[in-house]
Amino acid sequence: MTTTSTRALLCSLVLVMPVLPVRFAAAHHGHEHHDGPGHHHVHGLQEDQEARPDDADPNTPRTSIVVRGDHRYIVSNGLPDHETGRFPNRGNPNRITAQDHRFRVPVKPVKAARPVPVGMSCFGVAVNGVFFEAGTAEWWNNDRNSGWHIEAIGGTRNLGLDSNKAHVQPNGAYHYHAVPDGLVKKLAGDQLGKAPLLIGWAADGHPIYGPWGYEDPDDPQSEVRLLQSSWKLRKGQRPAAPEGPGGMFDGTYEEDHHFVAGSGDLDQFNGRTGVTPEFPDGTYYYVVTDQFPFVSRSWRGMPDDSFTRKGRSHGQRPGGSRRGPGRQRPGGEGARDRRDRPGPPGGPPRRPPHR
């Protein structure tokens, strides 16, 4: 059976933040509304229930999104509020369990001087409190130093993804690798595909949208359609062993792709600037697409530490499970260090591009 994500070493660390009292609501759609100056809550909030994970029903999806000062705080138990596939399954031996996710993102994103690789970090978090992961911890020959990083989608290994392009880490954390169909259908209802759909927040504070957008990014009256990535498969063959796995560039590996400016609707970060229903004056936003890179592999802005390993001891993650991290296995998630990764899409290369 293939090893799946043990990224629980990073994407499940509890970030201790001075945000209490935050109150949970049963997760339905996660949209914010005002509750006094400078204070927002999730619609459907239970006013008498404070954010104490130990007091909450562990089987009920719960999330809270609160804006205070310069930050937006997302606290959840990580349980999806839509149907999922069966876990454990043949490709994923892990069971979904409640977490203690605590994330923080800036309300006003700050653009970084250069692309910031996501690496082992969580890219962002959905409005229902389930986080997005860009890559996997699966490598050619189970060697994290090989420079050939196996994709969750389109790869040759069965990683047990469900219809939401999601699976479960050894610590029980359910997470998305691409467009979460169950979530977008629940959020959009009968308006599915008729307008840009806010589905989450990236670690740098930029909003994350589903795969639909306006034909003209600055005109909300223009046609709404599926947006296309500008990442394409390389042509030709990979280097043969011992330099590489050989074979045609077919999408099995992250390195099978390269960015072709102008070939799609989106930039190297799988995002663009334009108007949306939530930002009628325009904003930069990421798009989760049905094509590679699915979820951006780099941030355009500076990510908050609640999503990264900066300032943390090795082996910890934001939003840990009460049951503790799962056991690590050779070649699995949590076994690699970000220093060992080749440059991700959108980031500076750490190895010469393949021809």
What is this structure's SSE topology?
Blueprint: E1 25-26, E2 32-34, E3 40-42, E4 62-68, E5 71-76, E6 101-106, E7 111-117, E8 124-126, E9 131-132, E10 166-168, E11 174-176, H1 181-188, E12 198-202, E13 207-209, E14 212-214, E15 224-226, E16 231-233, E17 257-259, E18 271-274, E19 283-287, E20 298-301
Parallel strand pairs: 9-11, 13-19
Antiparallel strand pairs: 1-4, 2-3, 4-5, 5-6, 7-20, 8-9, 8-12, 10-11, 12-13, 14-15, 16-17, 18-19
Give the tally of β-strands. Answer: 20
Structural class: mainly beta
Give the % helix: under 10%
Q: In the residues, how many domains can be counted?
A: 1
Approximate strand percentage: 15-25%
CA distance, first residue to last residue: 33 Å
Note the main sheet. 8 strands, mixed
Which residues sit in consecutive blocks of at least 5 with pLDDT less than 50? 1-10, 12-31, 33-54, 309-355
Mean pLDDT: 79
Radius of gyration over C-alpha positions, nearest whole angstrom: 19 Å
Contiguous helical run count: 1
Outline, from the CA principal axes? globular
- The H/E string reads EEEEEEEEEEEHEEEEEEEEE
- With strands numbered from the N-terminus, the spatial order across the biggest sheet is 10-11-9-8-12-13-19-18
